[in-house]
Design brief:
Elements: H1 2-14, H2 26-39, H3 44-56, H4 62-77, H5 80-96, H6 100-117, H7 121-136, H8 140-156, H9 160-176, H10 180-192, H11 200-216, H12 220-240, H13 249-266, H14 269-281, H15 289-305, H16 309-326, H17 331-345, H18 348-362, H19 371-381, H20 383-474, H21 480-512, E1 520-523, H22 524-539, E2 543-549, E3 555-558, H23 560-571, E4 581-590, E5 595-601, H24 604-607, H25 613-628, E6 633-636, E7 644-650
Length: about 650
């Protein structure tokens, strides 16, 4: 039972749902505050009043209203300090909603304000919050990257609060990806970096997370140490600022829930119940509803540990309507917990009926689960096993023989089918082995050839570089002109060698999947004209490019940077190429096939295809990009029109 409740608590933590405030006077209260502010003159007094309101009401539904009012008034008065503060509070609103896009918008604002304000704390705290929002959406690698980037900036700007917030986000990202030990090390490192200037909310958050990790690993003695510190910090700030009490309610509830779990593990259930009573007194309308449900779930666990099955079942029935309205993803787990409690109570009939209710209700939950997931749910919750157990209890006296025969027949059938399955697997494995051997042999031949070619292509310019370098260093009779010429040859061969190696590495990253394309909308004709202009400027009069198409404007979905790189490779010749090129780009849109066809006539890259390996690898890179977006890439060095590269790309891939 304990594990089921813990799983449910984790699910709720991953899917927070912010409800509208139940207080019917909330709108009137907000309006009254704003009317008072409107009556004030546009001076620092008005800004200070709005600042105090935003600081005292960092909970829904007031936080966004007062933060926005502060920000807009600061913009009107052109006060950068309060504008920075308003943007910080607005970012905090979206941090609570785990909305990385909106959070990023306000973080960009804070980044712009930081140099003018003279402190990077607000910017770095909220940048670290982006990492937590990404981690909540299971974008772990991106979350780790953002947290480390924020940490690096925090150290650069000597921001202790930014540093603590970055460690907090990094630890969260590791925790979500089940890297528990690394997560704990990061949280402890943040704890060790506390200073008198560290913000209270960061202190409380770090202490809460350390306590949580120790509690999950069963180290209650260590959990208790940090939990008491968390409680002390909370009580101190509430005593110091009683008007901000509601800002800390979520943290207070979290702290009391941890006390309940701690004392339940110790077996002192009466003390655990005292903390449960205390946490229930904190459940007011302004509290995030997820904490209300967390409290009920901890109460369920308390009932399970004290074997108060009837109370447990009654509480599940009380909570279920709220779960159906706002936490559909946890509905199945909650109902399964009820069935498990009924089984522990000995009420198998009731458990079966509860499972049937789960299946019936699941069909009406707006397709929250697919048919396959529902089937998996049946298997996970062992509904068929319960029915079979009941049947065994009723029919043991006269059905054992029949079940034995059926079982034997099933085993024979399974054995027969399994034998046939193994035979087919053996045949398939033999074919796969033979194919793999042939492929391995072909790969080895290709690898040897490629190794030989690469070795030759690298050794040739390298010999030139080494040879002329020796001449420059050992010969004392060289003229200045000869030295300049040798230096130029060294530079040209070194640059060619660098381009060749970079091309090989780039192609290797593409083929290994380490480089990922980013799909975005772009206007293809404007992009082509831009690359044509860049190429003509780079050609210094040696390149003349014409665009022939009936298309005036067309949006396509592709990787803009890679598409620009492809066009650049086709239009710009190598640095040592002194030829003049007249290039024609023809573009045709096939609406029926939803494809865009390009013909680049006179491109220097087609002419150089077999002249050097760098050009050949560049064609491979281009082809890889085009194939990734559903098109084809073709090179013809000799056509009636001249060297030609043709390729196609889907308009909306």
């Amino acid at each position: 039972m304990k594990h089921i409740v813990i799983i449910l608590l984790c699910l709720l933590g991953m899917y927070p749902y912010v409800l509208n405030a139940k207080d019917t006077n909330a709108k009137q209260y907000q309006d009254s505050i704003l009317k008072i502010a409107q009556a004030m003159p546009n001076t620092i007094v008005k800004l200070t009043y709005l600042r105090d309101m935003a600081y005292r009401h960092q909970y829904a539904p007031y936080n966004k209203t007062f933060s926005a009012a502060l920000y807009e008034e600061a913009r009107t008065q052109k006060n950068i300090t309060y504008k920075n503060l308003g943007a910080y509070y607005l970012a905090s609103c979206y941090d609570k909603l785990h909305d990385p896009d909106s959070l990023t918008y306000w973080v960009d604002k804070l980044k712009a304000y930081a140099p003018e304000v003279g402190t990077y704390d607000y910017y770095l705290e909220q940048k670290a919050a982006i990492s937590r929002a990404l981690a909540s959406k299971r974008q772990i690698e991106k979350a780790v990257y953002v947290a480390k980037e924020a940490l690096e900036e925090s150290l650069k700007y000597n921001s202790n609060n930014g540093e603590i917030a970055s460690y907090n986000s990094l630890g969260c990202a590791y925790g979500v990806s089940s890297r528990v030990d690394e997560s704990l090390k990061i949280f402890l490192k943040a704890y060790q970096r506390f200073t008198p200037q560290t913000k209270t909310n960061l202190r409380v958050d770090i202490l809460s997370r350390i306590s949580q990790v120790y509690g999950n690993s069963g180290r209650d003695s260590l959990r208790a140490i940090y939990l008491r510190q968390m409680d002390e910090v909370l009580q101190e700030v509430i005593r110091r600022e009683p008007e901000t009490r509601k800002n800390w309610s979520n943290f207070e509830i979290d702290c009391q829930i941890k006390y309940v779990l701690l004392y339940m593990n110790k077996g002192t259930f009466h003390i655990a119940q005292e903390h449960l009573n205390k946490v229930k007194s904190l459940l007011e309308d302004h509290v995030d509803p997820v904490f209300w449900l967390n409290v009920q779930l901890v109460q369920l666990q308390h009932y399970a540990r004290t074997k108060e099955y009837d109370k447990s079942i009654a509480l599940v029935d009380e909570v279920t309507p709220i779960v159906l309205n706002h936490y559909v993803s946890t509905f199945a787990t909650l109902i399964n917990y009820k069935a498990s409690t009924q089984i522990n109570k000995g009420n198998i009939d009731g458990a079966i009926e509860t499972k049937r209710y789960l299946i019936r209700t699941q069909d009406s939950l707006d397709n929250a689960f697919s048919a396959n997931q529902l089937q998996q749910m049946k298997e996970i919750y062992h509904i068929n096993d319960l029915l079979l157990e009941k049947q065994k209890i009723k029919d043991t006296n006269y059905k054992q023989g029949f079940l034995f025969l059926i079982t034997l027949m099933v085993l024979v059938l399974i054995f027969y089918l399994y034998t046939r399955y193994l035979s087919r697997k053996i045949v398939t494995a033999e074919k796969v082995t033979a194919d793999a051997a042939m492929q391995a042999e072909a790969d080895n031949v290709t690898k040897d050839r490629l190794q030989s070619e690469i070795s030759h292509d690298i050794r040739t310019p390298l010999n030139v570089v080494v040879g002329f370098a020796e001449l420059l260093t050992e010969s004392k009779e060289l003229t200045a002109e000869a030295k300049a010429e040798y230096g130029k040859m060294i530079q040209e061969n070194a640059e060619n060698l660098l381009k060749y190696v970079n091309s090989i590495l780039e192609l290797s990253r593409l083929e290994s999947g380490k480089t990922q394309y980013v799909q975005e909308e772009c206007e293809v004709i404007a992009l082509c004209r831009k690359e044509m202009s860049i190429a003509e400027q780079a050609g210094n009069g040696h390149i003349n490019i014409r665009l022939k198409t009936d298309i005036e404007s067309l949006m396509i979905s592709t990787d803009k940077n890679w598409f620009s790189s492809l066009l650049s490779s086709l239009l710009v010749p190598s640095e040592n190429d002194g030829d003049t090129y007249n290039i024609v780009i023809r573009i045709k849109h096939d609406e029926e096939k939803n494809m865009l066809f390009f013909r680049v006539i006179g491109t220097p890259l087609a002419k150089m295809r077999f002249e050097n390996k760098t050009a050949l690898i560049r064609h491979e890179i281009n082809a890889h990009f085009i194939h990734a977006f559903g098109g084809i890439y073709k090179v013809q060095a000799d056509t009636s029109e001249g060297p030609l590269v043709s390729f196609s790309i889907q308009v909306n891939s």
